[in-house]
Amino acid sequence: MHLHHVRTHRSDENLDREGQLAWKLAGVATDPVELDDDVVDMVVNRVIDNAAVAAASIARGPVVSARSQALAHPVSIGGDGATVFGADAARRTSPEWAAWANGVAVRELDFHDTFLAAEYSHPGDNIPPIVAVAQHLAASRGLTGRDVVRAIATGYEIQIDLVKAISLHKHKIDHVAHLGPSAAAGIGTLLGLDQETIFQAIGQALHTTTATRQSRKGEISTWKAHAPAFAGKMAVEAVDRAMRGQTSPVPIYEGEDGVIAWLLDGPDASYDVPLPGAGEAKRAILDSYTKEHSAEYQAQAWIDLARKLHDEYPLILDDPERIESITLHTSHHTHFVIGSGANDPQKYDPDASRETLDHSIPYIFTVALQDGAWDHAESYSPERAHRPDTVALWRKVSTVEDPEWTRRYHSDDIAEKAFGGRVVIKLADGGEIVDEIAVADAHPLGARPFAREQYVQKFRTLAEWALTPDEIERFLDVAQRLPELGPDELGGLTFTVAPGALVGVEIPEGLF
């Protein structure tokens, strides 16, 4: 990896294209280096993972809304259109709207992959816009599954490299500002575009996808699921404009009125962004990790620890009266974003939205501790959140930042990077229960790392309520053959719900 030094520049410095971060990112996208076998295998896993969580969320309000918006638009004339999760595979729409609908379906349950470093990310969000464009142009450009795999590897590489170096949340900018550029770059790889065109698309995608983090603060709204889908949609449109010769603000990152100077660390700031050199394999996807549980990633290890404690101390932990307090000693992010350090009263409110509860580690830890399990639907139900013994214990749970867990959270050493912490349960009789966990069980270094078998099982489990058994097996067959798919098979990277699965689901009306 090479470190690209990025700083702000005055306009009279005339920073050359070759010195700009967006140009370097475009260079990664145009590098024709072959993919390693383990990277190809992981891309397939993440395509399956995305579809699994999309199937689980297919009847949820934001997904129904986004799907109805997408299907209200006809196929654009430049290709064959793209499929929408849940709809008949023959019913296509324009690629930017398919990216929108599928992006919301993938993101709604907060249940797919993650990468955490200086910034936070869900790099699987790159997949919907890339697949949508591939389906749309497969026939006219002869695109194959191998092209899709290479494009997805580019999207992961660029998003993860940006996340390693540039913090957005510190300045209350939403993390999708790294997704717009990465998705645009991935589409550039897919289509074999030249560096100048991808450069312009990256700049436009970044410029149109910077937004505040209020979407993840306080009473969290349904926009949380839409934000990355919007970034994917903007990336598709940015590539389209760039292909037509339209240019972007330059230099988008380094300009004196650019992103770094006014949205991030200011005119005197600098960053070192790690990027693969020419001919160096794109392997960043292997640094990311998926979720076994439908909750914010920092909650994954805590759910596993709570399940363990439930099994070890069933007679103590089933009664809130036996517990004086529960303190989670953890990282800065966990404390201030999903912990009591956020100072959000909604994180302790039984009437809070599902989106808010999945960003409340006090709630999540309480339910997992009491139930010894976590379910993407039942654990968030209003009945579960209002259970009196749960509310009583929930309000005894707090978080504190521990500098060592913060250091490990930000460590560049994969062997010590951690997203958990230490729990101290003070009992009413004066005793204590103390335990800790570094990474989730499903993490590559966890107790039960996810491999193909687990990804496939996750899809089968989450899709069984909405898809027929034949449709489940058909999709898994197509997805696992992704690297060998021909242009006529890319349309199979979707699923159709079973007859009757969406009966009673109301289709909202809007403008379209």
From TrEMBL:
Pfam families: MmgE_PrpD_C (PF19305), MmgE_PrpD_N (PF03972). SUPFAM superfamilies: 2-methylcitrate dehydratase PrpD. It catalyses: (2S,3S)-2-methylcitrate = 2-methyl-cis-aconitate + H2O. The keyword Lyase applies. Its EC number is 4.2.1.79. One of its GO terms (molecular function) is 2-methylcitrate dehydratase activity. It is an enzyme of class 4 (lyase). It comes from the Bacteria. InterPro entries: MmgE/PrpD_sf (IPR036148), MmgE/PrpD_sf_1 (IPR042183), MmgE/PrpD_sf_2 (IPR042188), MmgE_PrpD (IPR005656), MmgE_PrpD_C (IPR045337), MmgE_PrpD_N (IPR045336). Residues 293-482 form the MmgE/PrpD C-terminal domain. Residues 20-270 form the MmgE/PrpD N-terminal domain. Keywords: Lyase. The keyword Glycoprotein does not apply. Belongs to the PrpD family. Monomer. This is 2-methylcitrate dehydratase. The lineage of its organism: Bacteria, Bacillati, Actinomycetota, Actinomycetes, Micrococcales.
